[in-house]
Amino acid sequence: MSEFINHRLLNVVEKIGILTLKFVEGVGYYFALLVESVVWIIAGPFYKQPVRISSVFSQMMTIGIAACPIVFILSFSIGVMLAIQMIYNLKTFGAESQVVVGVALSVTREFAPLITGILIAGRTGSALAAKLGTMQVTQEIDALRVMGINPIRYLVSPALLAMLIMVPTLTFFSDIAGLLGGALYTSIEIGLSFSAYIDRTIAALVVGDVMQGLFKSFVFALIITLVGASNGFSVTGGAEGVGKATTRSVVLSISFIVIADMIFTYFLNR
Amino acid sequence: MIDENKKNVAIEVRNLVTHYGPRKILDGINLTVNEGEIMIIMGGSGSGKSTLMRYLLGLGIPTSGSIKLLGEEINSLSENETFELRKKMGVAFQGGALLSSMTIGDNIRLPLREHTNLDEKTMDIMVRMKLEVVNLGGFEELMPSELSGGMIKRAAVARAIIMDPKLMFFDEPSAGLDPVVSAELDELILRLRDAMNMTIVVVTHELDSAFKIADRITVLDRGHILMSDTVEEIRNSDNERIQSLLNRTPSNELINADEYLDRLTGI
User: Can you tell me the mean pLDDT for B206-214?
Assistant: First the structure.
């Protein structure tokens, strides 16, 4: 009996050990990928393998410009939703007019970066994982390597650069859309004029509020790219593997985003 | 052996040992390919021939042993040296491995665009020339998904030869093709060697095409080299496993009763 328990215990300890090892390995891989992509961005020209500006721009189009409509719709809805909730809550204190401050701070500091991050994780992170995974399965990555084209330089660096530019940009766009949603609902519900809303919003916000959101979105961009790319590169086992990697990259990205959001919010508000 | 001393060696593999996880795939491979030679690597499924190809291309790190391409030890080269060496290599993968997001023309142009500073017009002309070489003239605007399997393989050859490489590798060039197309590819391989004096390594299990194009054949079996010699010598070999590969006879090995029982019971 005791031997059996011992065996079970050993098994559990072994599993924890393996999980820890995998986690450390995973984090190490993300960092290696990050370092290599950044090194290619900076040092590529010296190795006669520069990161192509044209491919950065085409990535920026698909990541950023094409996502504008959906970012607008979601952020606008979030703005309206926040205004509804806050007016309902603040009514208890008879302070409905404070809704402006509430919406302005929540949108810029929290909701805009978060909703943009989650959207881009689902939209671009998954696409990156699926693209790299398919290329891995069809030997396209091998083909690039034997042609003397480094796959990280050719595929990951442009995506990383485009993400680091476009996710904060989209977040700023999302700020505006969210505030607009809040303004429209407030003006209808409690009769606060649109221009008064804007004036009060500008008075309530300091640069730090917006910057906090943008800083977080920068971190989210890193997370999405690295998780998507590393899951894509590690695909084995054909089409099914690509599907699994895509799902995993979305779930992992969103989880990391929410956790990172919590951590950064804590430290940025000390 | 006299040949080896006379000619320059393009590929030299010494005591190559590789593992896939704990499983040993290649065990003590020794192989030389001379310049301007067509070497066929043959063997049944699971013999390790595709693995050998991967390691020749520098896509894996061997457990031990050395691989020299054009006189350079590929596993101890710096990033820049590897980059320079790979400009002199062309590879036609089994499935073509054309980038599916680009047209055929852009695929073939890719190495030029990444490695040279030629202007667009010159690149266009070079792409069309190489497409003509593989009989795909006028196809540069199509996407890979719009081509048949044989066309994709030929387009992949065009991409592989765009930099005029010294070394060419073909992975299963005739797999999945009808006899006519596969014969055309064989012709193409011979023409490439004759016209551009390339050293060519072909991994295949198609006997007909192997005998047609080979200068020498290397037969792999379970990670070992059974024989590496001229077509005639291979044909006349009295090795049982080579003969069964040539004559397509099933291998009827005697089963060790104890081992068999152990395998079944999983001990």
Answer: 84
> Are B135 and B183 in contact, with CB atoms under 8 Å apart?
no
Q: Does B110 touch chain A (CB under 8 A)?
A: yes
Residue B63 in contact with residue B140, Cβ under 8 Å?
Answer: no
Q: Tokens at residue B191, please?
A: 């023409």
Strands B89-92, B224-230: pairing is unpaired
Q: Where are the alpha helices (DSSP H) in chain B?
A: 2-6, 49-56, 79-87, 104-115, 120-133, 149-161, 179-196, 207-213, 231-235, 240-246, 257-265
Element (H, E) at A130: helix A126-137
**Chain A residues within an 8 Å CB radius of B83:** 47-49, 148
Q: How many CB atoms lie within 10 A of CB B10?
A: 22
Chain B residue with the nearest C-alpha to that of A137: B97
**pLDDT for A172 beyond 90:** yes
Using pLDDT thresholds of 50, 70 and 90, give the confidence band for residue A70: very high
Closest among A161, A129, A131, A155 to A227, alpha carbons compared: A129
Residue A249, pLDDT > 90, answer yes
CB of A88 within 8 A of CB of A80?
A: no
Q: In which element (H, E) is residue B16 found?
A: strand B9-20
C-alpha distance from residue A102 to each of A8, A78, A172, A196, A216 (Å): 53, 13, 18, 15, 19
CA B37, B40, B41 angle in degrees (round to 5)?
A: 135
Write out the E strands in B181-241. 199-204, 216-221, 224-230
pLDDT recorded at residue B1: 42
Q: What is the pLDDT of residue B118?
A: 87
Count of other CB atoms within 10 angstroms of residue A255: 13
> pLDDT band at residue B4, thresholds of 50, 70 and 90?
very low
Question: d(Cα A218, Cα A221) in Å, to the nearest integer?
Answer: 5
Between CA B217 and CA B209 the distance in angstroms is 12
Distance from CA of B96 to the nearest CA of A (A): 8
